[in-house]
Amino acid sequence: MSIALSRQSSPPLLVPNLRRVDSTTVARTELVQPSMCGQTSLLCGRIGDWTWDAVSALCGIQVLNARNQSGAPTYLSFYYYHIRGSSEFHLRTPGFGDLLHVTSSVFSLGSESVLTLHRIARTPVGHDPDPTLTETSVDPEEFYSSRNPDCLYVETFNRWITRSDGGGNTNLLRSSPVDFRHAHLPTLPRKYSPRPTCHMARSQHTFLPDRSDEYRPFGEPLRLKYPVDVSRDLNGVGLLYFATYFAIVDWSLLQFWRALGRTDAAFLNRVVLDQKLCFLGNADLNTVIAVDVQGFTRASDPTEQCADVVLLDADTSRALAVCTLRFADAGGVP
């Protein structure tokens, strides 16, 4: 679990460039800066900020300063992150100066959890924004069944947690803030609940259904070691930053790619059509992360390739994250 932290309290305030679409949805326009494009982790980190902004604006609480009943800080941690793209618009599509229109709808999952659906659209140069993409809420049916191929969609499932009395990053407890308002939020239809999906990731270390039959391994399984880099991977309070998990996944996939004899240029040309990541734990300083990578092809569609990337504490084998990616390649070599 990765965490947004703050050290002082303040009244909940809307971010200046947010606008309210309705009582459960906010929208914003963002100019793509160098700090939010290129590497997967950069845009994922920014989208995470947009989740926190949406919850702060709609749930009567400043997420970064939330406290529980006993007065201890409580944090809106990322538990599940699902990205859905297309060949027209995926995580590596935004470039310097692009104008993005972000719509974020928030759903209740009870007093300890919240789910946010983001729709990210672009306005071509010389065109006006499409109001059906910038001024309407994001419906679960749209996300799961009727996506616009010209948009990028992201689902985040967050849970309120706090540190235990012993401190550290490996024993985090569920704990809701006192002022968190969620009764007005719509509930997610049961068929779209992320909980069964996360349970499969936790218990089976994959998001692929019927992996033994429908999905067939390709390439040799790869185990890597990744020492946590304290100069780059931690946030300001010493926790493994949630976007770092995406960076580790990409680094591991690159090593797998090279082991297959593929080029770095082909890796950069890949198109990630779907990526799911379940955050199962954080890590203390000096942790060495073991990473297991395995590729798969789909029996019913051999052109579709997937990869499972599992992060573990190398000393204890405690699972830290499970990620499954479905990808293709813009140049014809997946």
From TrEMBL:
<feature type="domain" description="LnmK N-terminal">
    <location>
        <begin position="28"/>
        <end position="209"/>
    </location>
</feature>
<dbReference type="InterPro" id="IPR040718">
    <property type="entry name" value="LnmK_N_HDF"/>
</dbReference>
<protein>
    <submittedName>
        <fullName>Putative biosynthetic protein (TIGR04098 family)</fullName>
    </submittedName>
</protein>
<dbReference type="InterPro" id="IPR024091">
    <property type="entry name" value="LnmK-like_bifun_acyl/decarbox"/>
</dbReference>
<dbReference type="Pfam" id="PF18238">
    <property type="entry name" value="LnmK_N_HDF"/>
</dbReference>
